[in-house]
Amino acid sequence: MIKVKDRKLLLLPGDGIGPEVMGEVKKIIEWFNKNKSLDFKIEEDLVGGASYDKHKNPITDEVFYKALESEAVILGAVGGPKYDNLEFSKRPERALLKLRKELKLFANLRPAICFKQLVDASSLKPEIISGLDIMIVRELTGGIYFGEPRGIEPIENNERKGINTHTYTTSEIQRVARVAFDLAKKRKNKVTSCEKSNVMEAGVLWREEVQALKDKEYSKIELSHMLADNCAMQLLRNPKQFDVIVTDNLFGDILSDEAAMLTGSLGLLPSASLGAKDKNGKIRSMYEPVHGSAPDIAGKNIANPIATILSLAMALKYSLDLDKEANQLEKAVQSVLDDGLRTKDIMSKNMKEVNTSDMGNAIIAKLK
Ligand code: NAD
After folding, report:
1. Residues 191, 110: Cα–Cα separation, whole Å
2. Residue 221: which domain range?
3. Beta-ladder partners of 222
4. Is 6 left (phi over 0), alpha (psi -120 to 50) or beta?
5. What is the pLDDT of residues 130-153, one digit of tens each?
6. Does residue 120 lie within any of the structural domains?
7. Could you tell me if residue 174 is inside a domain?
8. Has 190 been annotated as catalytic?
9. What is the CATH number of the domain that holds 366?
10. % of the chain beyond a pLDDT of 70
């Protein structure tokens, strides 16, 4: 078997249930190292509240440089009530924003897949979501969350004004659209681009630039444009009409959360954030579950580790060129669900309830 050398992975478990779910990921990486002759070098460090507790800083420069040097970062979750009153720059979430911004992770990929075994966990009718498999590509480093000017300023009559600015350039739009088109090529060749071109100039530009890229480079892709509010409605009415959806930072934030809830459980949803290719063809990347640190269940060994395990599968696929291993891991998860094993959050009648570590062990047993 081929030894895959120098695959450096940085694990940042973070806060709350982060370390518990990351523990299962570590076991799986160790299994791959031992049984598949892969040679991942794992480093692990503090981020978020855990880093603040030790360093008074949600991410140190040292950890940041480790992230720069690794092929992929896998993050658990950050945050918790203990840190809610810290000043903005010290908050656990600042670490995430810094990693996304400084690693230039401009494309956030959030699959929404409805596992056939868990159709009943969704609040929608089974026929609407059964077999659902969509991918939302959200622009992550531009738009209204980063645009200048921004702030809150006093105005006349003792009033204040809150200001944020929504801006996008041609290259910002086209690089994220390219990610969506390339993903669609490996799926059903269908992309829906969402904006509000009816009321926003930046939306008009978005529509025109996505179309221009498609016309120039992706003639085989079926591209349609949809207003973001209509997309929010269509996701509930008939989500299976979509394959890949590409949209900006703000609309993507909302639409990807909505799509996530179609599937019923936060504990199952992975995500990837990808940057540009460097001259060696490598992309910077970070993988994390969609859920947060779940302080209400932290430390009880009952969290669902599947979202983080599927985040590892995405890393294998998108950063490490290990599609076979990624498929093997995804199949192992499916197979454990087929066997009726469920963590508390997805438990239903006649199924067998297991804890976090049992779920990880069962997935490893399937890999074998
Ligand atoms: P959350 O996702 O942590 O939890 C929402 C609900 O889902 C809770 O009831 C929780 O118990 C449950 N849940 C979440 N993940 C689960 C899992 N893997 N298994 C079983 N149940 C699970 O969202 P929240 O409660 O709004 O936020 C809690 C903290 O997490 C806050 O400090 C928030 O800022 C932070 N947060 C962090 C991230 C991140 O790190 N990317 C994302 C969202 C929220």
Report:
1. 14
2. 133-262
3. 190
4. left
5. 989 999 999 999 999 889 999 999
6. no
7. yes
8. no
9. 3.40.718.10
10. 98
